[in-house]
């Protein structure tokens, strides 16, 4: 093809380039652990158990497999519904779907801060959040904020992952009260419509292991901001420019539930603020847009074969 490019606006040229180069495609990243006996779960909670009910050929010659399982709502990779620490907060089945499906997300990596501090119960501070915004820009309106502490590298050893000490107390990094309040007030501070709608972390809890009053949970859940705990593979995510989908078991009146969590990387946010009323652009449409633009331009005579 011989494109007549000179008269086209810059955005059209960019989309044509994306279509030609084929870079308008996303990569899916698994952010949840397999829900089995090894699923990371606080030693304070009911562990996952799995019982075979039927495994074999039945009297009709058909292979049948069926199992029972039991676990805490807060075992493995899971979502905390706001009602977990807020009497008037949403139960799990009340969290709007649009706050779970394909939400713009960012990753704040505090791994080096945790390592350099030498403190197991490192508290993520307001300055950690302000430093991230100074480098990458304001948190998108209506986003999920994920925190990588590096604690996920310990997940193969539950005792080490939970930080159990000789007094049998748990120890691991989490959010400080100030950082949680900073996130909860982001919409008000920057005149956003939605602000932060979810917060995730690669540890057993949003709060530090030694917490007894759970100030991070309280501050976030009072604003119907849900939590996601025990996230995996956060080291495969960029600081910004990706979407997250959270798929929990829809437990009626639940305070939480095990969840499949996926990220779509290489999917830039559309211009302007994210709108939960209209919803984001569907992935299939996003991938088709360059090709559709090429067809439209050819029909208008801007591109000739």
Write up this protein.
This protein has 305 residues and is of the alpha/beta class. The protein has helices at 10-21, 111-117, 126-136, 158-161, 177-184, 186-189, 215-221, 283-299, and strands at 2-3, 27-30, 49-57, 63-70, 78-80, 103-109, 123-124, 143-148, 174-175, 196-201, 226-229, 242-248, 256-265, 303-304. Strands 5-11-10-8-6-12-13 form a seven-stranded mixed barrel. Strands 1-14 form a two-stranded antiparallel ribbon. β12 and β13 form a beta hairpin. α5 packs parallel to α7. It is globular. The model is unreliable at 19-23 and 272-287 (pLDDT under 50).
Task: Write a brief caption for the model.
The protein has 305 residues and is an alpha/beta fold.
Q: Which sequence of strands runs across the widest sheet?
A: 5-11-10-8-6-12-13
The total strand number stands at 14
What order do the helices and strands follow? Answer: EHEEEEEHEHEHEHHEHEEEHE
Output the radius of gyration: 22 Å
What profile does the largest beta sheet have? 7 strands, mixed, barrel
Give the overall shape.
globular
User: Roughly how many Å apart are the termini?
Assistant: 4 Å
- Mean pLDDT, all residues: 88
Helix content: 10-25%
State the secondary-structure class: alpha/beta
Unreliably modeled segments = 19-23, 272-287
Total number of helices: 8
Beta-strand content estimate: 15-25%
